[in-house]
Amino acid sequence: METKRETHQFKTEVQQLLNLIINSLYSNKEIFLRELISNASDAIDKLRFKSQIDPEILEGDTEFKIKLASDPEKRTLTVSDNGIGMTYDEVMENIGTIAKSGTAAFLKALEQSQKGNSITPEMIGQFGVGFYSSFIVADKVTLLTRPAGSEKATKWESRGDGSYSIEETTKDSRGTTIILHLKRPEKEEQDFTDQWTIQSIVKQHSDFVRYPILMDIEREEPIPEKELVLDKNGKPIGKKTRKVVRQETLNSMKAIWAKDKKEVSDKEYEEFYKHVSHDWNAPLEHLHIKFEGTTEYTALLYIPSKMPLEMLMPEYKHGIQLYCKRVFIMDNCKELMPDYLRFVGGVVDAPDLNLNISREILQKDPLVRNIRRNLVKKVLELLAGMEKDKYEKFYNEFGRILKLGIHIDLENQDKIADLVRYKTTKSNDRLISLKEYIDNMQEGQEAIYYITGDDLSSLINSPSLERLKEKEYEVLLMTDPIDEWVVQSLPKYREKPLKSAEKGDLDLGKIDKKKKDEYTALFDYIRSSLDTKIKEVKPSTRLKDSVACLSGDTYDPSAYMKRILKSSGQKLPEVKRVLELNMDHPVIAKIKALFEENKNDPVLKDYIDLLFDMALISEGDRVENPSRFSKMIGDLMSSALKVQAPGVKE
Ligand code: ADP
Fold this sequence. Notes:
Blueprint: E1 5-9, H1 12-24, H2 31-51, E2 66-71, E3 76-81, H3 88-96, H4 103-114, H5 121-127, H6 134-137, E4 138-146, E5 153-158, E6 163-169, E7 175-182, H7 195-206, E8 213-222, E9 241-249, H8 266-277, E10 285-291, E11 297-303, E12 319-324, E13 327-330, E14 345-349, H9 359-364, H10 366-385, H11 388-402, H12 404-408, H13 413-419, E15 421-424, E16 432-433, H14 434-439, E17 448-452, H15 456-460, H16 466-470, E18 475-478, H17 481-489, E19 492-493, E20 496-500, H18 513-529, E21 534-539, E22 548-551, H19 559-567, E23 577-581, H20 586-597, H21 602-618, H22 626-644
Parallel strand pairs: 2-8, 12-14, 17-18, 17-20, 21-23
Antiparallel strand pairs: 1-6, 2-3, 3-7, 4-5, 4-7, 5-6, 8-9, 10-11, 11-14, 12-13, 15-16, 15-18, 19-20, 22-23
Helix pairs in contact: 2-7
Adenosine-5'-diphosphate is lined by residues 39-40, 43, 81, 83-86, 94-95, 99, 128, 130-132, 176.
């Protein structure tokens, strides 16, 4: 057969990732085996799934397995599977480049957080290094693969040094074989051709893999009596044992979710979590439940202790695997957990499901919906019952995902609202619940006050909070874009309305009507001179020490919401703001005097513009014309200095 052998260069980010893996995982070298076995197991899953529609594809070979073989002389370790295999193009696509679209982003995040060094294995573990981890232990990797149902096979080979070769070849059986040409172990390092080493790594990292991991194991066994050589007295001479090689299954394939809770140790729960999630960290919490009743099922669910880096990427896979009577059906089972609980991982085993169920059917299946409803309830209860420190740890990792539930799961809105936590003007950086907020409310306080924005310190110092602070009312500080959706969907919590500190009237005290009338002419004048920017000028219900702030009507979008939409490129209809002025502030009184003396004084216009710009800045926005703003401030300073320090020569 004429074959063409091509050599290609790795993409830059592949080489970067390779170097990173090789240089940072030196103390956890053995994880390469788990990664390869996990790929093999995935490949078998894929084939099994495909064979449900097209049983022919199996060509009679239904004994799914993963095989390991080592050759200490040649220093090779081989991992083979009879899974789905890859076509030439798929090898190019999956192995030659990095399929994960998040890789570049991952590398960048690593670079930024670590400044290039001391990357912990956990960080890489959170990402999942996959096939490339082979190069931690091998100086050459050969991959042979033949897709199920095809004649053509492909050989891929690389030394992990920037290039790889690829050619067509032949292969007897379907599936993928990966041959690692191992580096020489350094002193005191594990030798990955040693059968005991391999056995113990499989036991530790891949025990729960659902297909048998087979290897020829050599053992000393007693020679059967019949075969012993005996002396004339009938006593055996020579060796009583001999070396026997037998194929053994290295993993237990235990379905621990099917066991009774009492029979499963914490260690086993933890190991199983690491297996299903590919996470290196222990889980924060687990939940093992058996439902008996009209809907029967078992679930073993986990809450991770750390947010995987991939969770915020669009192609993130949900962590729930669906089984039916211990037979794996599918992973990434989004249908069993809503998006706002997508951090929950684990296994659900539903014996009444059809084994050949497809995703489309799954979505509509009333049984599945029922299970989902129950699981959501259980997970929310688990979260609600967590002890405080643990919950805070959870909330810091996943709070912003969970919060979305208030917006999307109206059925459980109250329960999710019980679970949200915020920092407040009084909590000293501590997170508090809405229930705690209500318990701490001042006498006469009717509403739950909040303010939204991206920066905690500018929120705490916002002029909009001055009157609230004076009355000792606590204000929730919301610094997450999701919070804008939370407050929109949650008009009330336990009968108390949620009220924005920067929108609508705060009704904290009566506005002096007589004084207000005195200011009407000035306010009208200001409104018309800022006509393009604001819709109203009014005496403030929220300012105490500051001169001016911007606010909106109750249902207007907040300044933060506007910034969020703008930065995500969305067009929004122009909603003019309200300029609130503090009638008790001497500056406003002075401006009023100036206005009454000569409303055509050009300084008046400057001052009005300054008032507006100051209000903009205090809510974290940018002024339209910064150079004019600083010139006006400069002018003001120099005239103030003339008064305060008249001796200084100009
Ligand atoms: P990941 O497994 O996280 O996607 P890898 O780098 O380990 O990343 O593998 C990349 C892709 O190569 C896999 O998604 C899969 O499509 C393919 N692949 C890897 N190993 C095998 C295998 N043993 N059989 C079939 N396809 C495989």
